[in-house]
């Protein structure tokens, strides 16, 4: 049996064939038409599978503007609060959602990929999830764990001033208790999750905008641009400016 996986991004997995038994906030069986919603930081694993065919995507929750995408992210918020992570798509919509997932994959692999296109396609997928999920006010199946609450706080607030102490205060625990519990459940500390969310949004802005690096630093929670540059280099091996140049060159279509 494989060890549980924990992603730093949100994962959506559409099952289009076969059967798969998974462990994620309990055990359940997935079959064609089921969409599995996996918030960042949620441990999950496959227990068994038979001829399973799955299409999936991952995306940065922090990188989506809550003012624009809040309603579309409601099903994921409910999973965080303890609702079932499985959505049963209507048969009439399954082929459409699969086409959207395939188009997202093609767009992300294209030499001239445009982030705004992938984001627009993702919004259409999330809209289908909302429609298939039923009432936004549906009651959760269980009380959310303290770790889930802490990760939700980080997702919502990591682009502003946020410390371990403030996360602990938000979930009504001591800093030592919170960081130990989060590390045991996800393999990462609270501070590491804050940094991950900030750097993910920084990478998005480096590709999607022409903002100066010091502006991006401020927008992702770092008042000191030099600290941001050092942190970015530590995680990616190059400065933000060099990372932007490398990835923009890779996106340019071949003139030949």
TrEMBL record:
Picking any one GO molecular function of the record gives: DNA-binding transcription factor activity
* Gene3D superfamilies hit by this protein: Homeodomain-like
Keyword check for Mitochondrion, yes or no: no
InterPro entries registered for this protein in UniProt: AraC_XylS_family_regulators, Homeodomain-like_sf, HTH-like, HTH_AraC, HTH_AraC-typ_CS, Tscrpt_reg_AraC-type_HTH
Q: Which Pfam families does its entry note?
A: HTH_18 (PF12833)
| Keyword Transcription regulation assigned | yes
Limits of the HTH araC/xylS-type domain: 148-246
- Tell me the keywords, alphabetical order: Activator, DNA-binding, Transcription, Transcription regulation
Q: What is this protein called?
A: AraC family transcriptional regulator
What is the scientific name of the source organism?
Sorangium cellulosum (Polyangium cellulosum)
């Amino acid at each position: 049996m494989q060890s549980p996986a924990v992603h730093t991004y949100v994962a959506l997995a559409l099952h289009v064939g076969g059967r798969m038994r998974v462990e994620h906030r309990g055990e359940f069986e997935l079959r064609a038409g089921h969409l599995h919603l996996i918030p960042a930081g949620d441990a999950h694993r496959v227990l068994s599978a038979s001829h399973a065919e799955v299409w999936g995507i991952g995306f940065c929750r922090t990188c989506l503007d809550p003012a624009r995408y809040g309603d579309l992210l409601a099903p994921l918020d409910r999973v965080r609060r303890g609702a079932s992570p499985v959505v049963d798509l209507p048969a009439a919509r399954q082929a459409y959602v699969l086409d959207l997932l395939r188009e997202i994959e093609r767009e992300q692999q294209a030499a001239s990929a445009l982030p705004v296109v992938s984001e627009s396609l993702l919004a259409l997928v999330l809209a289908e999830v909302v429609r298939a999920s039923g009432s936004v006010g549906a009651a959760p199946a269980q009380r959310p764990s303290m770790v889930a609450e802490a990760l939700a706080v980080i997702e919502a607030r990591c682009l502003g001033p946020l410390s371990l102490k403030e996360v602990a205060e938000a979930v009504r625990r001591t800093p030592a208790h919170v960081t130990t519990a989060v590390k045991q459940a996800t393999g990462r500390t609270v501070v590491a999750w804050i940094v991950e969310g900030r750097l993910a949004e920084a990478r998005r802005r480096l590709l999607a905008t022409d903002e100066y690096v010091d502006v991006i630093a401020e927008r992702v929670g770092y008042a000191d641009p030099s600290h941001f540059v050092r942190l970015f280099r530590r995680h990616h091996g190059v400065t933000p400016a060099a990372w932007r140049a490398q990835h923009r060159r890779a996106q340019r279509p071949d003139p030949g």
